[in-house]
Design brief:
single chain; about 210 residues; mainly alpha; about 70% helix; transcription regulation; Tet_transcr_reg_TetR-rel_C_sf
Length: about 210
């Protein structure tokens, strides 16, 4: 009797991690603005009241979804390449080649969530767009820092502008993400990656 009394009135329990994973997929596939609360609760298998109780409002759920995406292989491969590869060329070659595979992987939505989720953000949700822009710009800063370090060690010549080169690769990555959303497969993306790497202005390894 005591146990029944303790649970009376509580919403039906659910697997929070599974529900969050479903939200990640939906935001990744449709973007923030095009995803409604009704679509989220249907995909997550919960009622609106449970969503609000467990995650807060839609924006809070999105913030948690972005953080969860950042812990997946699709969200960590760039940082791992920068940390693990001994040269800048090998780091950027790995980033582009892995992006070609990951962005076109049919086991999850195409492209990069921090790029695709920013589409169709309404003016009243400007903070969401700014959050995603901040994440993309943080990558750019990390890339520029790695390229400046490569310049100091002589891997890149002095004539190279590290900021412009970082921007170049960011543009390629964003374009690869969009191409995958438009149906490009891993082979096409891999060819694009190799063409981009052909523009590398310094020493190459691997």
């Amino acid at each position: 009797m005591g146990e029944a009394g303790a649970t009376r009135g509580r919403p039906r329990s659910f697997d929070r991690d599974a529900a969050l994973a479903a939200a990640v997929r939906l935001f990744w596939e449709r973007g923030y603005g095009a995803t409604s609360i009704g679509e989220l609760t249907e995909a997550m298998g919960i009622r609106p009241a449970s969503l609000y109780a467990a995650f807060g409002d839609k924006r809070s759920l999105f913030e948690e979804s972005v953080a969860a995406y950042g812990r997946t292989p699709a969200g960590t491969f760039m940082g791992a390449a920068l940390e693990e590869e001994p040269t800048a060329y090998r780091a950027f070659a790995r980033i582009l080649r892995e992006a070609a595979r990951i962005y076109a992987d049919p086991s999850h939505p195409a492209g990069c969530m921090t790029i695709t989720a920013a589409a169709n953000v309404a003016p009243q949700d400007a903070e969401v767009g700014a959050r995603l822009k901040g994440l993309r710009n943080a990558n750019l800063v990390a890339w520029e820092s790695r390229l400046r370090a490569a310049q100091r060690t002589g891997e890149l010549p002095e004539r190279v502008n590290p900021r412009a080169l970082a921007g170049y690769f960011a543009t390629i990555i964003q374009g690869m993400s969009q191409r995958s959303c438009d149906g490009a497969g891993p082979d096409e993306l891999a060819e694009i990656a190799e063409l981009a790497l052909a523009a590398w202005p310094g020493d190459r390894e691997g």
